[in-house]
Amino acid sequence: MVGQLTTHVLDIAHGLPAEGMKIELWRLEEGGEKKHLKTVLTNTDGRTNAPLLQDEELKRGVYELVFFVGDYFGEFSENSPDPVFLDQVPIRFGVSDIAAHYHVPLLTAPWSYSTYRGS
């Protein structure tokens, strides 16, 4: 089995995949410093076009996905509150098995979110 990290975002306020949401991927290094690995945008299905990490890119350790929820929902309304209730949503998680598939989805609205380890 090939290890990989994937994600997708569902816009539960509009009942749609969250197309065009910016996502940053970070790795937490020794001493607590964060290393930026990549920035991607979701496609029409609310997913990335390719796994965020796969094969030898996926290493044991702690990662963080940052979802730019505030920017995404700001595109739907000219009357967004200032400041928005949710802006950047970070999800920090650990990878212990580099041969496993780690799927970290986000279900979100302008006022809430949830996540889980998917398959």
Can you give keywords for this protein?
single chain, 119 residues, mainly beta, Immunoglobulin-like, 4-stranded mixed sheet, 4-stranded antiparallel sheet, globular
Describe the structure.
By secondary structure, this protein is mostly beta strands. The chain has a single domain, classed as Transthyretin/hydroxyisourate hydrolase domain (Immunoglobulin-like, Sandwich), CATH 2.60.40.180. Helices cover 5% and strands 44% of the residues. It contains one helix and eleven strands.
The CATH homologous superfamily corresponds to Transthyretin/hydroxyisourate hydrolase domain
CATH level 1 class label: Mainly Beta
Write down the CATH topology: Immunoglobulin-like
Instruction: Return the domain count.
Output: 1
- Proportion of strand residues: 35-45%
Quaternary organisation of the protein chains: single chain
What order do the helices and strands follow?
Answer: EEEEEEEHEEEE
How is the largest sheet built, in terms of strand order? Answer: 3-2-10-11
Cα Rg: 15 Å
Shape type: globular
Task: Give helix % range.
Answer: under 10%
Number of helices: 1
> What's the mean pLDDT score?
94
Q: What CATH architecture would you give?
A: Sandwich
Major sheet description: 4 strands, mixed
Distance between the termini: 13 Å
Query: Which runs of at least 5 residues are low in confidence (pLDDT < 50)?
Result: none
Function: Catalyzes the hydrolysis of 5-hydroxyisourate (HIU) to 2-oxo-4-hydroxy-4-carboxy-5-ureidoimidazoline (OHCU).
Family: Belongs to the transthyretin family. 5-hydroxyisourate hydrolase subfamily.
GO molecular function: hydroxyisourate hydrolase activity
Domain Transthyretin/hydroxyisourate hydrolase: 5-118
